[in-house]
Amino acid sequence: MDLAAAFTTPAIPIQSLADPLFSAGGGRLSILRADRVHAGMSGNKWFKLKHNLIRARREGHQTLLSFGGPWSNHLHALALAGREFGFRTVGIVRGQLPEILNPCLQDAVNAGMQLHAVTREQYRHKNDPVFLRGLENQYGEFFLIPEGGANREGALGCAELADCYAPDQFDLVCMACGTGTMLAGLASRSPVPLLGIQVLKGEGYLAREVQRHLDRFAFKARCHWQIDDRHHGGGYARTTPALMAFIEEFERLHRIPLEPVYTGKVLHAIMDLKKRDFFPQNWSILVIHSGGLQGRRGFI
Ligand SMILES: *Cc1c(COP(=O)(O)O)cnc(C)c1O
């Protein structure tokens, strides 16, 4: 199968929200529905896998191996990609596997992924050559994709999200950031300034990470970019009653599904920043719906 053709970006809809908070000042809030890019592979993880899979195929690899937590959108997408494009996949999962697999891991197994659980301590050594050699002894030769798809190929794919919006329509593009790979990729291509909402704790952490990605991928930022590190809501995958209530209300009003780890958090943050007059009143803001909806099942 021609992978480049299979990963041609389809038309991705942009929805304009009827939100009084924005329209009152002559502004606008829109959502890029990147969650709809593929029926199974989640939003930005589809973009991150694109050039990884193209490269793996070109280099003749049969097996793709990567890392993630038990609710990893990345491992989930990788498993589905392996099934669709004929790669064997191995997922190294952080922490013990539950006796009854959660729906995310069950989907991965159903798609043919081999799961290999490691302790949190072992997981910390995931980039260690000795640890990787051990995995190679066990699973044979593989193409390694880092956790979260956080490599140059991943960023190159995410850069293509910049082709999904007309630059003259927006003053700012916002997104949730975990590793910062998506934002680094977009920064290399988007003419519109970017705001990333850091979904995990750590003052200044992601701004440093994004700069590190830009340097190691030899990307030049084409636009101004900024990270907000104050809207993580207590840490990665942590929720608050306010966040959950916001998501419920947002879904009811706009009929757009969100999840609390990334997309709910970014929209909740944008609303808060808007209320605090962080943006000029008449700004037209685009939020990237980066997917992750399979993970909602962990919050019901
Ligand atoms: C992985 C993920 C992100 C974070 O992307 P990074 O490139 O790691 O910053 C955002 N949203 C969703 C839904 C994700 O699955």
SSE pattern:
HEHEHEHEHEHHEHEHEHEHHE
Helix content: 25-40%
Q: Please count the helical segments.
A: 12
Listed once per kind, the bound small molecules are: pyridoxal-5'-phosphate
End-to-end distance, in Å? 38 Å
Query: How many strand elements?
Result: 10
Show unreliable segments.
Answer: none
Main sheet specs: 6 strands, mixed
Supply the helix-strand structural class: alpha/beta
Can you list the strand order of the major beta sheet? 1-2-10-7-8-9
Rounded to the nearest angstrom, the radius of gyration is 19 Å
| Percentage beta strand | 15-25%
Mean pLDDT: 97
Write a structural description.
- The protein is an alpha/beta fold and 300 residues long.
- Helix 3 crosses helix 8 and helix 4 runs parallel beside helix 5.
- Strand 8 (194-198), helix 10 (205-216) and strand 9 (225-228) form a beta-alpha-beta unit.
- The chain is globular and about 60 Å long.
- The chain has a 6-stranded mixed beta sheet, with helices on both faces. The protein has a 4-stranded parallel beta sheet with strand order 5-4-3-6.
- 38% of the residues lie in helices and 16% in strands.
- It has helices at residues 3-6, 20-23, 43-58, 73-85, 103-110, 120-123, 129-139, 152-159, 181-187, 205-216, 241-254, 263-275, and strands at 14-17, 28-32, 63-68, 88-94, 114-118, 143-144, 172-177, 194-198, 225-228, 284-288.
- It binds pyridoxal-5'-phosphate.
Short description:
The protein is built from 12 helices and 10 strands. With 300 residues, the protein is of the alpha/beta class.
SSE arrangement:
Blueprint: H1 3-6, E1 14-17, H2 20-23, E2 28-32, H3 43-58, E3 63-68, H4 73-85, E4 88-94, H5 103-110, E5 114-118, H6 120-123, H7 129-139, E6 143-144, H8 152-159, E7 172-177, H9 181-187, E8 194-198, H10 205-216, E9 225-228, H11 241-254, H12 263-275, E10 284-288
Parallel strand pairs: 2-10, 3-4, 3-6, 4-5, 7-8, 7-10, 8-9
Antiparallel strand pairs: 1-2
The protein binds pyridoxal-5'-phosphate (PLP).
